Amino acid sequence: MEQLCGPELPFWEPNLTLHAEIPDLPQCFQLTVLAWTPCVYLWLVSPLYLFYLKRNSKGYIMMSVLNRVKTIFGLILWLVCWTDLFASFHEMQQGHVRPPVYFVTPLILGMTMLLATFLIQFERLRGVQSSGVLFIFWVLSVLCAIVPFRSKIIYAGREEGVSDKLRFTTFYAYFSVTVAELILSCFNEKPPLFSNVATDPVNNPCPESTAGFLSKLTFWWFTSMAIKGYRSPLESKDLWSLNKQDTSELVVPNLLGEWEGEKVKAQSVEPEMKGQAMYSKPAVESNHVGTSPEEVEVLLAGGKGVRQPSFLRALLKAFGPYFLIGSAFKLLQDLITFINPQLLRMLIEFTKETGMPSWWGFSLAFMMFGCAVLQTLILHQHFQYCFVTGMRLRSAIIGAIYRKSLVITNEAKRSSTVGEVVNLMSVDAQRFMDLTTFLNMLWSAPLQIILALYFLWQTLGPSVLAGVAVMVLLIPFNAVIAMKTKAYQVEQMQHKDMRIKLMNEILNGIKVLKLYAWEVSFREKVLQVRQKELAVLRKAAYLGSLSIMAWTSAPFLVALTTFAVYVSVDENNVLDAEKAFVSLSLFNILRFPLNMLPQANVSLKRIQTFLTHDELDPGNVDRKPVASDFAVTVVNGKFSWAKKDRPALHNINAMVPQGSLLAVVGHVGCGKSSLVSALLGEMENLEGEISVRGSVAYVPQQAWIQNATLRDNILFGKPYVEQKYRCVLNACALTPDLDVLPGGDQTEIGEKGINLSGGQRQRVSLARALYSEADIYLLDDPLSAVDAHVAKHIFDNVIGPEGALRGKTRILVTHGISFLPQVDNILVLVEGTVSEMGSYQDLLKQNGAFAEFLRNYSLEDIIEDDDVMEVLLDEEESFPDDALSNHTDMVDNEPAVNEARRQFMRQISVMSNDAENPKAMSVRRRRCSERRHGELVQEKKKVQVEKLIQAETAETGRVKFSVYWDYAKAVGPLLSLFICFLYAGQSAAAIGANIWLSQWTNDADDSARQENVHMRVGVYAALGISQGALILANSLLCRAYSMLKAAHATHLNMLHAILRAPQAFFEATPSGRVLNRFSKDVDTIDSLIPDNIDIWMRTFWYTVNVLLICSALTPMFLLVIVPLMTFYWWVQRFYVATSRQLKRLESVSRSPIYSHFSETITGTSVIRAYGRNGDFVLMSDMKVDENQKSYYPGIVSNRWLGVRIEFIGNCVVLFAGLFAVLGKEKLSPGLVGLSVSYALQVTMSLNWMVRMTSDLESNIVAVERVKEYSETPSEAPWEVENKKPPNEWPPEGNVEFADYSVRYREGLELVLRNISLKVKGGEKIGIVGRTGAGKSSMTLCLFRLLEAASGEIIIDGVKIAEIGLHDLRSKLTIIPQEPVLFSGTLRMNLDPFEKYSDDDIWNVLKLSHLHKFVSNQPAKLDLECSEGGENLSVGQRQLVCLARALLRKSRILILDEATAAIDLETDDLIQSTIRTQFEDCTVFTIAHRLNTIMDYTRVLVLDKGQIAEFDTPTNLIAQKGIFYGMVKDAGLA
């Protein structure tokens, strides 16, 4: 430095700086260190920064006034600096030589200013609106210039006048321009031109992208949202759109690309594996022709050693780089953390010494403040990066799972049910999000520990090792607990999966449960699982209490051992304030890294297994467009549903010529649907080849309907063409139905098509196929769910030789014999192989299986075409007023649903959740133009359509106190108070220990300290240990007992209420929404709320204590507390209001992701057949983005809050320091140490407290939501004690309707009007009538799924309205129209209460013709039915329902259109079984095929809810009324 500054200007003078009352820095120091600091910074950073700017351009910004001024100022600064330089040269010429520093410094400064000016312009060209790099540079420049600014004034004051006038002037010019630059750099430039930010037509772009550097640093740009959220509850339209780089369309492909790469790497395995892989390749290419299946098996087994592709690695590659920026911030923050304890040490030293200049103390206090503020800003930047990474992770994982679920094989689908996959999406993706914040702890924790130990060693010497030993002992303890907790978590996840799966089934089959009165059995099943789940949670809570105790006591135990050892080792060791409190603050830093327990491993494995499932091989079906006469060819086909299964189809050979119509017939379960699936490529291709030439349309056996409008279901992504659309509707006989639906084709269809009848669903599905204009149509039994004359209409107008599809290739699976003469070819399947194939005539001539099949069935089904045409024309004339007459199912499907239809008929609104609350009904007006049979287009009146499914309401505003009170009641009010008291006690003990410590440190100057040591250590230990004991007691009481009790009670009430809810509730509430309450909300009550309450109580008491201590020591502190707390309260009000609403919006926008997902999974085969994977992926992505739109402001609100609250905490530190300096004379060093070290921690606890308040508010909403469903109005009681019917009731089975009327809901029209009839025991009654005539309602009334509006039903002298529902329903038997099975054993499906013996069950299986099938199964009665009975064919499921009915064998049997999905042969079997087995029972049949009821005792014809005709079939035919018309249609007359 001598050479630079010369001998007269010393570099450092202690007397001038440290020990002076008015300190100053020497001239040389000012000219070198202070002047060069900003320059060094800018030159170091700019190369990196320029590189970054070259890579990322956002378009350029036009020259603005701001930009011009900045540039001019930059040039002025350069001129000013070089003026100094030239002045020095000028003086040299004058002979007055200056030291070198006068040349070097201005030169460097001038160069730097030029660089800064260049950066200003370069940033403008690269579209940077606000520059952080330059902002920091100007701040440094101003800070470094303040010292010379002050000292120049001091000098000018001391010596008369200014010696060096030129430099004096240039410096002040320099200073003022630098300050101006600093001020200007706080402002933002206009957004760049040509940037995608500005041109994006985004409705509400996020201000973050255009926010300035300071605004980003303090999250100021979020304030507008906070204010808006405070003024009025936020709605989804107030949310900002997502930043481009966070959207699914960028994030998901990024992850999938890396994952594909991982899979490719995993497949190129070790060399010896390669040989085998090469060998199996050609075999796979040719689809195993020529290789025996055994060989292939071996090959597949050989590949087992393949290394699993690592999902984690893919994640790291995709999101690592962005995440690392956050890690860099974390590193900085870790280092800054350790500055404050050192400053605290200096502050305590300062209070001890007398005669120190007081500016020392003040500058220390301000340095502590500055450090803390810097730490805050950096920490929150780090969090922001972490959370955004987490958010992208979640988008990417959900996207990956969704895309995967569209392509997995059936085998894979079997291994993960819908519930499990939804869980992957909700719970596991969430886990990953939480993980990102902890990932940095993996390296940051060891770093913090090492640094803390280093500083501790300096303070206390080797005694630290004692404390470290305690810590090291605690680590395995914590690790063991973590391991066990993890195991429990896996177990709890399994129970939860199991419970959700059960709930899912219950909700899907709720109607059947009600009809069979099985709710109790299923409630027990759910509660058993729930019991197990709670048991696991309880174990986890015990462990949790231990680990909380270990965690809170750890710093204390460490401190105790360290201090005790330190004092005992050597008599000269004195524990003074400085040592004690500096160590304490270091121990507190240590506490955090020791408590990080990762949980994401479980989730990682689950997601990885799902993503590595087998995918359907697109090569299963050869789709190459080669010209050929045959549209579909199958050669030597052998197919199974899963690689391991027996082949379902073997030896299939078929060629279907272009444009021909092929019918596929055969018995139930012979593989007809499997054949269609094989053609779609849904089955495993074991050998042989399939080729399909052209696009495919597919109509599944069970129609798949989306929750969308009717029109959207038909268009299915194709553009709307009016003319074509009308034709399609007419061909599929849907036009009449549109008149009935309240909104025409804009009616919203509920989940799974719940408000359409089976027939309507099937026709919509058919219309979708017809509209898609494909080349090949695969129709899987589309005619079974509709009435005979509708089937005829559809066959003639769509499928048959004259239909809309003539000239296309059609493959029709059918049970209807009547159409077979009109098809080109018939393929007969017997037990999975083709037994014969040819035209109708050929097959009759061959006299094989087919001829036999036909002979069994009356040929009277087959009538001449012209005949039917006449009949139809007749009908047109006879019912001109009723457009429904000809083309609508005569019978309606699903009693439940048909209420909806009946209302449509009256054009009345469909169900809504709450008819009382008019606001909740979203009313849409639609205009629908209708063209009917070539009449003029007539404008329909604007109809008000009320949505069937109400949007899920998000509660707004404050969470009501009553919700907390409900929770407290569930816990127990007295217990709650006691728990609060314990928390206060525990906190008091902690504070006591520290006050005692400060007393102990004051012994330092005391001569009698040696005798006191044991007493001091003893009391300190006692206080600390009692704190630990209180924590443990508290945790156990709180978590393991009371909170779980509350969790149990809330779930029980909700389950009970849901099972008791009337049928209407389930029709208006999508199952996804109920499931969401049972999974997410119950989970919140189980595990999150207890945590929140626990942390909240701890931080609350802690904060109160800190403020008390600071105020007690320095009463002036009270003056500061008031404004600080006001600000705190104010910030938290803003935050809580906004954040709570954001949480609510987030959870409401979450359900659609899952319901869309479960909808997709059920319809994968349809989506794949129509090739619409891409569109569905887009829909899913949109829903995820919609959800993230409310999640992102939620993260930012936490950062926004953190910066502001920590600022308050930092002010507390500042004032604690300042008052300590001011009251230095009165305070002992121990007390100063106590108050400042406490203040250093208050920041954390303030932050946590607001956060927990808000979390608790957001989570307690779960209690509110669960409670909302627990108060669902219930149906009549299950059992009425004093009105129980006798056990053998009903003895005869007489049924009487006395002037009976019924409506679906208050305020709606009657569905059945004044029906009176008597049925004697043993009569067989057929019920017929057109759609909406009220047939199904009759059966619903018998079971009291609908309650009477007037009149009554009497069965054997008992009024059914007076007895309990279970007593009634268990005495009636129904074979419902849609066969519902539950997952579980076959035995459970037949007899859930286990009332019957095995012999009974086998007997029933014989009668229901399932005996052969079941006895062939290895598991016999314990055959596992998969979810929804997927592993049985529809026909077999129907037979299972028959078996249930036979097992119950009650006096009254109701058949609801039970034979729709069955081929004629099985139908005959069922009919004959019913005739023999239920001979003396009363049977009501809702007839589907009229020939089944021709021999019944009487037939009841309903029309518009009234009895039209009621007599024996022969009399009715003789009367030539409505019934006669129907019989004639069906060709039986």
Instruction: Please tell me how large the radius of gyration is.
Output: 41 Å
Across the major sheet, the strand order is 5-6-7-3-8-9
Q: Main β-sheet, in a few words? A: 6 strands, mixed
Task: Extract low-pLDDT stretches.
Answer: 270-305, 858-946
> Between the first and last Cα atoms, what is the distance in angstroms?
121 Å
The gross shape turns out to be: elongated
Judged by helices, strands and strand pairing, the structural class is: alpha/beta
Tell me the helix content: 55-70%
Number of helices: 53
Beta strand %: 5-15%
> Quick one: how many beta strands?
25
Mean pLDDT, to the nearest integer, reads 79
Explain what the structure shows.
By secondary structure, this protein is an alpha/beta fold. Helix content is 61%, strand content 9%. It contains 53 helices and 25 strands. The strands form 7 sheets. It has a 6-stranded mixed β-sheet with strand order 5-6-7-3-8-9, with helices on both faces. A 6-stranded mixed β-sheet has the order 19-22-23-16-24-25. A hairpin with a 7-residue loop joins strand 11 (929-930) and strand 12 (938-939). Helix 16 (358-405) runs antiparallel to helix 43, helix 36 (961-971) crosses helix 44 (1229-1270) and helix 40 (1071-1113) packs antiparallel against helix 44 (1229-1270). The longest helix is centred in the last third of the chain and has 52 residues, at 1009-1060. The protein is elongated. The N and C termini lie far apart (121 Å). Mean pLDDT is 79; it is low at 270-305 and 858-946.
